[in-house]
Structures are given as structure tokens and as C-alpha cells.
TrEMBL record:
<keyword id="KW-0547">Nucleotide-binding</keyword>
<dbReference type="InterPro" id="IPR036371">
    <property type="entry name" value="TPK_B1-bd_sf"/>
</dbReference>
<feature type="domain" description="Thiamin pyrophosphokinase thiamin-binding">
    <location>
        <begin position="124"/>
        <end position="210"/>
    </location>
</feature>
<dbReference type="InterPro" id="IPR006282">
    <property type="entry name" value="Thi_PPkinase"/>
</dbReference>
<dbReference type="Pfam" id="PF04263">
    <property type="entry name" value="TPK_catalytic"/>
</dbReference>
<dbReference type="InterPro" id="IPR007371">
    <property type="entry name" value="TPK_catalytic"/>
</dbReference>
<dbReference type="InterPro" id="IPR053149">
    <property type="entry name" value="TPK"/>
</dbReference>
<keyword id="KW-0808">Transferase</keyword>
<keyword id="KW-0418">Kinase</keyword>
<keyword id="KW-0067">ATP-binding</keyword>
<dbReference type="Pfam" id="PF04265">
    <property type="entry name" value="TPK_B1_binding"/>
</dbReference>
<dbReference type="InterPro" id="IPR036759">
    <property type="entry name" value="TPK_catalytic_sf"/>
</dbReference>
<dbReference type="InterPro" id="IPR007373">
    <property type="entry name" value="Thiamin_PyroPKinase_B1-bd"/>
</dbReference>
<protein>
    <recommendedName>
        <fullName>Thiamine diphosphokinase</fullName>
        <ecNumber>2.7.6.2</ecNumber>
    </recommendedName>
</protein>
Length: 217
């Protein structure tokens, strides 16, 4: 099963949500992201938040359409997205995708990245992505070996260490290959790489690596 969480970031940054509505998908709306889903004809199975960013009419709409609503006070230790993400892990999904988490407040964005880098929140073989109309971002906990495929919509690959260093980075099938390389925090050497053919592989032995696939639009 794939869990897709729609957060309440700027609507103009959202990808085509209907493109994700295939197979066994469990949709979760977070605050205003719930309205984004409903307005696109997608009824989430659950909604989370304090819902301080929706109007009275929108709140009534959410209550009419969504069966499972988890409300929280505005003043709390966790963000709405963190609460939704932690709850979604109890579903034991194979994939987790977060939409609507970029393009707005930087504190919210870096809070999301921090969540994905926390092994207490996301660990094991779970594939997690943050997706917007121009980027696909994943945070990988080593050791990892992952095959990736050519996608014209997200042509460029960039690799950023989240930990002080990432050990053993190897890029196969890329324009700029690497073999057993140690990536130091703060380096921009690993920005804007491309696949040579239809597929390639990246792997590393230790550390936490952020992988961003970007469009050239």
C-alpha cells in the first residue's frame, strides 16, 4: 500500500494529484491540504490538523466528506504533518509520498526534511518522497542500494548529505559516476547529475543522504 499525505503548502506548487491516484492508495489530508484533495475529487480516508487555515465553509465541507478526522490544538509540540506522518506509519505502507510541503514557509519545509532524517520516525526499507511540480525529494538512511529510472519530468539528480558525511557513495549509469566516495557535509560537487541511459543505480554504505530529482522548467 502507498500512503499519500497532502499538506497545506502553496497550491500552485502541487503536482498533478490525480497522477498518484493509482493502485492501492491511502490518502491523508493535513489541514488545508484536505481541501486541496476534495477540490480535486479525491476524498481522503483521514484528515489531520488544527484546521486554522480553512474557512468555516471549508471546515463544514471537510466534516461532511471525510470519515476519520483527527483534530489537535494549534499550540502543540508536533506539527500537523508530523502527527499525520507518525500515524500513517501504523498502516505499514511500502511507500509514503508527501505533497504540499514545499514552496511556502522554510521552517515548515526544513521541519519536514528533519522528520524524514529522524530514524525514530522513518526507518527500514520504507520509500519516502516529498513531491512538488518541479522536484522529487527523498531522504535515504544507509546502507542503501537503489535503482532509478529516467523520467523526463525530473531529469536532474542532486545528492546532499544530511549527516556530517555519507560513506561509500557510488553512482552507476550516471553522466558523472562515482565509486566508493565519501561525501562531506557542505559540498556542492554532487549537484545536477544526469542518467546516461534508461536507468542507473546509487548506493552508499553509511549516513543519511538527501536525493533530489528536479525538472529543468
Amino acid at each position: 500500500m502507498r500512503v499519500i499525505i497532502a499538506a497545506g503548502g502553496p497550491e500552485k506548487e502541487l503536482p498533478d494529484m490525480n497522477a498518484f491516484d493509482e493502485g492501492d492508495v491511502y490518502w491523508i489530508g493535513v489541514d488545508r491540504g484536505t481541501v486541496y484533495l476534495l477540490n480535486r475529487g479525491i476524498t481522503p480516508q483521514a484528515a489531520f490538523g488544527d484546521f486554522d487555515s480553512v474557512s468555516k465553509e471549508e471546515w463544514n465541507y471537510i466534516q461532511q466528506e471525510v470519515k476519520s478526522i483527527h483534530t489537535f490544538p494549534a499550540e502543540k509540540d508536533e506539527t500537523d504533518l508530523e502527527l499525520a506522518l507518525q500515524w500513517s506509519l501504523s498502516l505499514h505502507p511500502k511507500q509514503l509520498t508527501v505533497l504540499g510541503a514545499t514552496g511556502g514557509r522554510l521552517d515548515h519545509f526544513f521541519g519536514t526534511v528533519s522528520l524524514l532524517a529522524n530514524k525514530k520516525v522513518v526507518s527500514g526499507d520504507l520509500e519516502v518522497e516529498v513531491v512538488d511540480r518541479l522536484n522529487r525529494l527523498s531522504v535515504c538512511h544507509g546502507p542503501v542500494r537503489r535503482k532509478v529510472w529516467q523520467d523526463p519530468a525530473y531529469k536532474y539528480f542532486s545528492f546532499f548529505p544530511v549527516t556530517k558525511e555519507v560513506k561509500g557513495l557510488t553512482l552507476e549509469g550516471f553522466k558523472y559516476p562515482l565509486s566508493d566516495h565519501t561525501v562531506q557535509l557542505g559540498s556542492t560537487l554532487y549537484v545536477s547529475n544526469e542518467l546516461e541511459g534508461e536507468s542507473g543505480t546509487f548506493s552508499f554504505t553509511d549516513g543519511i543522504l538527501m536525493v533530489i530529482r528536479s525538472s529543468d522548467d
